[in-house]
Amino acid sequence: MTALLSLRGLHKAYRGDAAPFALEVPEFDLAAGEALALAGPSGSGKSTLLMMLALASPPDTAEGFGFAGQDVLRLWREGRRDALAGLRAGKIGVVPQTGGLLPYLSVAGNIALTQRIAGRPDPARVLTLAEELGIGAQLGKRPAALSVGQRQRVAIARALAHRPALVLADEPTASVHPELADAVLALLKRECAEAGAALLVATHDPERAARAGYPVLACVTHAPGEDGVARSVFTRAPLAEAA
Amino acid sequence: MLRLALADLWHERVLFLCSALGCAAVLAPLIVLFGLRQGVVAGLRAELLDDPRAREVVSVVNRTLEPALFDRLAADPRIAFLVPRTRALSATIVIENPAREGQGVRMELLPTAQGDPLLPGLVPGADGLVLSATAAERLGLRTGDAALASVARSRGGEREVLSLPLRVTDIAPPAAALRDSAFATVPVLLLVEDFLDGTAAADARPGSEAEARARPFAGFRLHAARLEDVPALDREFRLAGIEVASRAEAVAGLLRLDGNLALLFLAIAGAGGAGYLVSLGVGLWAQVERKRRDLALLSLLGLKRRALLALPLIQAAAVALAGAVMAFAIAASVATVLNRAFAGTVTGDRPVCLLTAGMGLAAAGVTLGGALLAAVLAGLRAAAVPPAEGLAEG
Question: Could you tell me which residue ranges the ABC transporter domain spans (chain A) (predicted)?
């Protein structure tokens, strides 16, 4: 079978905390339904990579960028932003670092948001997800009335509500206390596995991810070279091509 | 999309209420002002229109006007009614009530015809007569009574009298004639004139309408189709050398007032409205900046550009509509107070401030258009928020 996500020779420059950084992804494949943790120190470009995978920002250069059978590179090149938005809406679920909930919608409204944007309303799934994530009693409340951990779980439910093929989570445990962090990682993995969605979690804590049962892909960082640009490399052997 | 935009507004309903109130605060005085203009102009216009003589244009000097001129005037779309008249000196007649012999009254004989605005719905017919209210009272005549019309001439020192037995078919409304007067068809007037000129015998009877119309006349009486046409007709006749009397001055004055009030209104509405729209636009722009993260998140979740563009537009539309409704409610109550305070002064018993549902709709429409225009910039800004910002730590 072909990979859900396939990157080749991708390059993106970005500004780190101090020095200029370059993110390189020579090879990276992710199969449908696969879970993976992307590990690297803070500022190593995990978020930048996730943004590109979320089809929210384009790579500077790349040889290949396939997602769900679509040539993402071509969509960027041709400036088809609505097609990219459509892909984001239909196939991708995102769990931002800090909840990122809309304050003016109820918890139920926030969870149903991805369904509504994707045009696939499914109130029963909103209920089921909320029950599984232990926020069934909060559905009518506004995000401001929830604890940080509850908000994070609402964000997870929202990322899964429209049955995406890929869930991206950027440091989902950064803003919760350590005990809760394990639970959040486990929840994510379990829910994605149940929904058959591939999962990519960016984390600065590879041990915790490994403990939660995630395969870990660590980034290799290189000190600034002659050009003064530090490089950060994520690479992963390609999946065996179907015969 | 709509629900999202409205949920946002509802969440910040105090802010929304403030925006709508701001809109109403600018709009309400404008609506009142517009209503005043409408009321004053409509009142003056109605006063003029109530008087059927307002649209009247009468030639005042005796000339010889050929039938061709009358044909041309009859074809003019600005002229609703036209009747020729005989010389002023030969247009007097003595009317007598047969029951009160010897008590005849001398009065002005006026021409009329089908569709005369002075006598709505009344045509005397070939042997009929419409009397002014005062004349009918003095003669003790009522509708349907027989009357005797007579004209006298002296020929070779001998007095000859033309006597016409006529029937009073109607009494003219008071506005048609203030003095004693009698309305009759053109052939009757022509017969009187011919008799006085000596070309008709004392036992002659009125000819046909068609014959009459083929002859030249000394003058005419016409009514313009619209009030606005009166000044132009008046000017054209004078330029053509036909001296006329009309209310052209009063009508032109009203039209000038109408135009000036419209200009005044435009100036005030333009200044106030533009100021408000700028402030609304700036407010929406600031809102987009404030909500940048939410917008970026929506974009990241896959909301398309035109949906993002629509968010501020929908919100602006909601503010404008709510503002317009409030403004109209305020204006309507102010108008009620004004109308009560000014009752019977400026515009008689008509409302001094005139508000209609059509005006409300127009006000809402204009406000909506302006608000959408002001929101487009904010919308474009919202649509341009990069989705990547939704993921970044704020």
Answer: 5-242
